[in-house]
Amino acid sequence: YRHWLEQSNVLFIIGGKDWFGVNQDTTFLYGVTPKLWDDTVISPLPRARVWAGAAAINDVLYLTGGAGPQGFPLADTLALDLTDDPLQSPQWDYLTTMPTARYGHATAVIGSRFYNIAGFTPEGTERGVTGAVEIFDAAKGRWEVRKPLETARGLCAAGAAADGSGNAVFVMGGFANAPTIYFGDTVRMSP
């Protein structure tokens, strides 16, 4: 239920649920050099959440959406600037709200842009999922809505890579509810 993200030899574990099923607002970090595990050096999230999307661009961590304490999708876009030493207690800042509130979505980064792809939302299809694709341009600080995936899904994976046609985002797997449908496909998206 927690989101893991590696940036500059530091592993961040953001939000999630504890053993009792309660959403958390903590940001843990583990430094490879020196070895460090601490949840007090980074400020807490403004709101506890689970199944959020995360991306790192340069020395800034971005966190999008997630399910809040009551299970409703969030539309927050948060940033944690790690330009200075992460041990100096940087603060999470609110940025512009993403167009589609969601949780269980995939993220991928190409250059200074990160992609939020699919996920669970009450505004989704009859199965409670969406195929929405939105891109946050970190250099411009704004969201752009793109053509949605043909097949809506949640809890899929995404990654950016170069192929014979240039950079692309690949979306893999996922599932939809009622009835449960599992996807084993890979979808290529042009940036």
Descriptive report:
The chain has 191 residues and is mainly β. The chain is built from no helices and 17 strands. The strands form 5 sheets. It has a 4-stranded antiparallel β-sheet, with no helix packed on it. A 4-stranded antiparallel β-sheet has the order 5-6-7-8, with no helix packed on it. Strands 9-10-11-12 form a 4-stranded antiparallel β-sheet, with no helix packed on it. Strand 15 and strand 16 form a beta hairpin. The chain is globular and about 45 Å long. The model has no long low-confidence stretch (mean pLDDT 83).
Summary tags:
191 residues, mainly beta, four-stranded antiparallel β-sheet, 0% helix
List the helices and strands and how they pair.
Layout: E1 3-7, E2 10-14, E3 27-31, E4 36-38, E5 53-57, E6 60-64, E7 77-81, E8 92-94, E9 106-110, E10 113-120, E11 129-137, E12 142-146, E13 157-163, E14 166-172, E15 175-176, E16 181-182, E17 186-189
Antiparallel strand pairs: 1-2, 2-3, 3-4, 5-6, 6-7, 7-8, 9-10, 10-11, 11-12, 13-14, 14-17, 15-16
DSSP helical segment count? 0
Secondary-structure element pattern, one letter each: EEEEEEEEEEEEEEEEE
Average pLDDT reading: 83
- Tell me the strand percentage band: 35-45%
Low-confidence segments:
none
Main sheet: strands, sense, barrel? 4 strands, antiparallel
Bulk shape: globular
Give me the side-by-side strand order of the main sheet: 1-2-3-4
Number of E-state strands: 17
**Sheet/helix structural class:** mainly beta
Can you give me a brief rundown of this structure?
By secondary structure, this protein is an all-beta fold.
